[in-house]
Amino acid sequence: MIKFVLMVNKQGQTRLASYFQWYPIQERVALEAEIIRRCLSRTEFQCSFIEYRGFKVVYRRYASLFFVVAVDGEEENELAILEFIHSLVETMDKYFESVCELDIMFHIEKAHYIVDEMVVNGSIVENNKVNILKPLALMDKLASAEGGIFSR
């Protein structure tokens, strides 16, 4: 089960955090800081898996963003989580046309929507880019017709 998904820049600033289990804010801040510090301190020649406080933390760097996913310690396959991260990046690339940190910052609600379409209650429920992006395309179409909050 996925506990949380983070998107972090190279300076260690969290750009997106999506939690699927409740943690107090102080614990979230401490957890993110320690996990981010550990991920940023590793070289590209080290594996992308870390064990921390009972979590398996799987991360991958794409351009200037680190995508970090924490799962239950014993139950999950690390390679499957790496595949999920790659699918998430591909889906965001397709929607944002080459996703970058600014896309996440300026369209945070759409980035959260993509994550929420892929993961429900910590379980991966959708991996198909077309199925994930279809509702967003409809919202964009509606927003462009009405000039609403979802317009690009």
TrEMBL record:
What is the official name of this protein in its record?
AP complex subunit sigma
Kindly list the biological process annotations in GO that this record carries.
intracellular protein transport
Does Plastid appear among the keywords?
no
Q: Name one GO cellular component term.
A: endomembrane system
CDD domains (UniProt xref): AP4_sigma
Q: Which domain of life is it from?
A: Eukaryota
Pfam families to which the protein is assigned, alphabetical: Clat_adaptor_s
Q: Which organism is it from?
A: Spumella elongata
